[in-house]
Amino acid sequence: MDRKWIKEIESGRYAPVYLFYGMETFLMEEAIKRLEDAVLGVGEDREWNHTVMDLEEIPVQDLVLEAETPSFFGRHRLVVGKNAWFLTSAQGRKKQEHRPEELVRYATQPLEGNVLVLTVPAEKLDARKKVVKKLRKQVREVVFHPLDSKELPRWVAEKLKETGVEVHPKTGEVLIRQVGGDLRLLDMEIRKLATYAGPSGRITPETVTELVSRTLEQDVFKLVDRVARRRVAEGIALFYDLLQNREEPIRILALIIRQFRLMLQVKVLAAKGMSEREIASTLKVHPYPVKLALRQVSSCSEGALREWLFRAIEADRAIKSGRIDKTLAVERLILSIR
After folding, report:
1. Which Gene3D superfamilies match (predicted)?
2. Domain extents for the chain?
3. What is the DSSP letter of 109?
4. Model's pTM, two decimal places?
C-alpha cells in the first residue's frame, strides 16, 4: 500500500477526492477511519459531517449532491461512497442508473472543505472506461493489496507497538503462524492479548500459544507440512489430535486437498518465474499462504505433488462412494506419502 498519502493527511494536506480500491478491505476501513480523524477532528458535530452511502443502493449522482452540500457548522465534511462497482468490470448486486459524468464534473471542481471518498473491494479498476481514465487525472488513488510476506510482519509489529504493552521480539512471528494473514482476525487477537497483559504486562510467544485459538486451516497446514517433509508419524499425530478435538475427517481431507492443490499451482507458477505477489494475484489468494506454500514445495517435485493431489482426491471419492471409512481413508492417505 502506498503510504505517502498517510503522511500527506498527517501534515494537514488532504485531497478533495480519494479513490480507494483493492482486496484488503480491513486496510481500506482503517484508511477511512484515519481520514475521518484527520478531516473531522473531535467535536459533537463530527457525526453530522460524516456521510456514508452505498452505491449499490443509491446512484452516484446522489452522492455528488451530498458532496456538494457544505457543512451546517462551517467545518469540513467527509462523504464516503461504498461499492463503486461501476468503476470496474464487475457487476454489483443491484443495477443502478449511475451518471458517472456527474462524478467527473465534481472531481474537476470539488467543493472546498469537503472530502469525497469512493471505495470498491476490487483488485483493479476497468482502465478502459472513460470515467476511470478521467477520474485518475483528478483524484488521489490509493490501492489496498493484501500484504506480502515482508509487509505482514511489519504491520503486525506496528499493531503490537500501538498497544503500548511490552512485546517479546518473537511474538509477531508466532501470532502470524497461529492466526495466518487475516488482518481483521490478527487485529482482534492483538487487542485481546493487550487487554490480557495490561499496561504493565508483557506479550510473549507463550502468551500467544496460550490465548490465541488455532484455526483448523492452520492445523491442517501443519499436518501437510509434516507430510511434505516426510515426517509422517508427526502428521498422523496431528491428525489424531484433530480427531480428539472433534474435527470432521471429511473437512480435514477437503483442506488437505486444497493445500496440495495450492502447493502444485505454486510450484508450477514459480517454475515460470513468477514472484510471490504475481502468484497470489493469479490464484486470487492471500500472499501469506503462497509464501508458506513456496517453502513447502522447495523439496518436492512437481510429479510428487501431482501424485499426492491425485491420492487425496481418490480418498475423497472412496469415502463419498461408501467404499472406505472416512477416518481410515485419511490415515491411509497420510501413511502413503513417503
Report:
1. 1.10.8.60, 1.20.272.10, P-loop containing nucleotide triphosphate hydrolases (3.40.50.300)
2. 4-143, 151-211, 216-336
3. S
4. 0.76
When pLDDT is cut at 50, 70 and 90, the band that residue 96 belongs to is confident
Q: How far is CA 195 from CA 178, 182, 204, 264, in A?
A: 19, 20, 13, 41
Top-level class of domain 151-211: mainly alpha
Select from 253, 317, 262, 254 the least CA-distant residue to 284: 262
Count Cβ neighbours within 10 Å for each residue of 6-36 and write b for 16 or more, e otherwise: eeebeeeebbbbbbbbbbbeebbeebbeebb
Which residues, 6 or more positions from 189, have their beta carbon under 8 angstroms from its beta carbon?
A: 175, 179, 208, 211, 212
**What is the DSSP code (8-state) at residue 245?**
T
> So what's the pLDDT on residue 329?
95
Contacts of residue 215, defined as CB under 8 A and 6 or more positions apart, other chains included, come to 179, 180
Residue 186: the pLDDT is: 94
The model's pLDDT over 11-33, given as tens digits with 9 standing for 90+, comes to 888 899 999 999 999 999 999 99
For strand 77-82 and strand 50-54, is the pairing parallel, antiparallel, or unpaired? parallel
**Residue 301: left (phi > 0), alpha (psi -120 to 50), or beta?**
beta
One DSSP character per residue, 135-190 reads HTTTSEEEE-PPP-TTHHHHHHHHHHHHTTSEE-TTHHHHHHHHH-S-HHHHHHHH
Instruction: Indicate the fold that domain 216-336 takes in CATH.
Output: Zinc Finger, Delta Prime; domain 3 (1.20.272)
**pLDDT (tens digit per residue) in 123-158:** 899 999 999 999 999 999 999 988 888 899 999 999
Fold of 4-143: Rossmann fold (3.40.50)
Residue 291 is predicted with a pLDDT of: 87
